[in-house]
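Posting for a labmate who doesn't have an account.
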Amino acid sequence: EVTATDPSAVQDADVVLCCTSSRTPVVRDESVGEHVVVTAIGAHEVDARELPGALVSRSFVVVESRAAARAEAGDVVLAEGEAGRELVAADLGEERCLVLPPRRPARGRP
């Protein structure tokens, strides 16, 4: 069984998918390494979130639509409120292809 308080659930992951109806973060910021792809699709109300604000604020945030994100993506709305700045780097309407920098290998991985 894996729980939100179990850092081992994501600490060595390359990809983290959050597809829950949780109203509170399901992972901890410090458990998610650099260069990890995190996809969160469950928080669809402005007062619900699957990700902690610190994780969102250190991420390259891509949303389907900036307008929709500001209206219903609690992860974005709450994190922007905490950070005091806009966090969305791009939306899929603006970007047809995102080229991200190469990721660094995780500790102990080739």
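Reply:
Got it, the structure tokens are right above this. The chain has three helices and four strands.
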